[in-house]
Amino acid sequence: MFSQPPRAVDATLPIRIRYSTNAAPQSLASFAYGPTAAGTDEAALHLHLPPHGDGSAQEHWLSPNPVTHRAAFGARIAEDGSLLYAAWTLDEAAHGGIEAASEEVYRQIAALLENGGYPHPIKIWHYLGAINEGSGDDERYRRFCVGRASALVPGQPLPAATAVGLQAAPDRLTVFLLAAKVPGIRIENPRQVPAYEYPRAYGPVSPSFSRAMLMPWGQLFVSGTAAVVGHETKHPESTGAQLRELALNLDALVARAESIGGRRLAPAALKVYVRRPEDLAEVEALAARLFPADCPRLTVLADISRADLRVEVEALYDPVTDA
Ligand code: 3EB
């Protein structure tokens, strides 16, 4: 798993992700993870995702270029001439519920992509409170999928995505977007049915995302990846088996991206979402075996979009040059 090729990281890559406990200058975006927003500096977006470890963690998207900030399209925006980051935080009640709030945020995203100077979405992150609340087609994640789909521009390529649940902040929808001046190539996973083709059993509208986006400068932005094979959840009773299965999914996806892009890839940042606090130690121990030790990794507690999924991993891969 992830046998590590000799690494010669390209210093000109437009984004690097680092996890740390303090603030970073020149960042396109910063996120503070923890149970409360206390102590979060103003520039960081606070996410109610308790990190594994000492109780605080920050994530920084570092840019090699000067970053400017503005507010537009209902979002806080940062841009550096090649990439744009935008963040929305919506009070669901003020928009009439999760479905309407997700439709509203996707309208803002469409407007930003059309008029904001960075027309190509790379990846969109969605954090919903109580994501598995409600049964059948009333589940909040399914309503979110319906709202998202109703504001999508037909024919627009689907970006990579993460959609997970905050185990707090029940009626706050947090969405952020990474977009580029130039388009990427969508990558699907040969082990998985495309999410946008999931059968009806998983909800009235299938989830609108691609498994990964390969950018022209060689980086691969990978969607939240779980133990879904075909369209089915595997190993609903074993967190460890789910983590091993999703690692196979990552391998298959990356192999596909390598063959399409013609360059080898190595993981450059991994975020692990774990549903149950009692699984944290096992997941950390197994992740340390499955993933390279020199890859920055952050593990946080979160709910996963399907009630029978216990763990999910999202990743950034960098192109590597064999020595
Ligand atoms: C899956 O494979 C897991 O709805 O945007 C992963 C990433 C998942 C993104 C989304 C859902 C989403 O279906 C769930």
Describe the structure.
By secondary structure, this protein is an alpha+beta fold. It has a single domain, classed as 2-Layer Sandwich (60s Ribosomal Protein L30, Chain: A), CATH 3.30.1330. The protein has a 7-stranded mixed β-sheet. A 6-stranded mixed β-sheet has the order 11-12-13-19-16-17, with helices on one face. The longest helix is centred in the last third of the chain and has 23 residues. It binds 3-(2-carboxyethyl)benzoic acid.
The overall strand count is: 19
Our estimate of the beta-strand percent is 25-35%
Main sheet strand line-up: 5-6-7-10-8-9-18
Bound molecules: 3-(2-carboxyethyl)benzoic acid
CATH topology: 60s Ribosomal Protein L30, Chain: A
Rg, please? 18 Å
Assign a percent range to the helix content: 10-25%
Alpha carbon gap, first and last residue: 20 Å
Major β-sheet, in short?
7 strands, mixed
* Assigned CATH superfamily: RutC-like
* H/E element sequence: EEEEEEEHHEHEEEEEEEHEHEEE
CATH-scheme architecture: 2-Layer Sandwich
- CATH top level is Alpha Beta
Coarse shape: globular
Low-confidence stretches at least 5 residues in length (pLDDT < 50)? Answer: 1-6
